[in-house]
Amino acid sequence: MSAGKWRRAPVRARQNWPDGTVRYQVEVDLLGDARVRTLMYQWPQPRLRVARRSASEPTRGVDETRQGDMPHRGPVSG
């Protein structure tokens, strides 16, 4: 809830911290002025709620199919 309205904020990343806390990185338009901000919120937190759950499973590691080749640096001089 921000500026008297519920704001939707898609989750971009979840972080599990060593102390056991969970934080979510979200993109949200807090004031309804179309300026999207990237913010991080600890979960759970009063006044934050799940609007709808994703149908996708979270990633657990690197997706090798999305990795590109390393850039070529050219000849080594020395």
Task: Walk me through the structure.
There is one protein chain. This protein has about 80 residues and is mainly beta. The protein has no helices and three strands. The protein has a three-stranded antiparallel beta sheet, with no helix packed on it. It starts with 10 loop residues before the first strand and ends in a 35-residue tail after the last strand.
What structural keywords apply?
three-stranded antiparallel β-sheet; 3 strands; elongated; 78 residues; mainly beta
Sheet bearing the most strands, described?
Answer: 3 strands, antiparallel
Structural Rg: 19 Å
What does the overall shape look like?
elongated
What is the residue-mean pLDDT, rounded to a whole number? Answer: 81
**How many helices?**
0
Order of helices and strands: EEE
Distance between the termini: 59 Å
Outline of this structure?
By secondary structure, the chain is mainly β. Helix content is 0%, strand content 26%. The protein is elongated and about 60 Å long.
What's the topology here?
Layout: E1 11-16, E2 22-28, E3 37-43
Antiparallel strand pairs: 1-2, 2-3
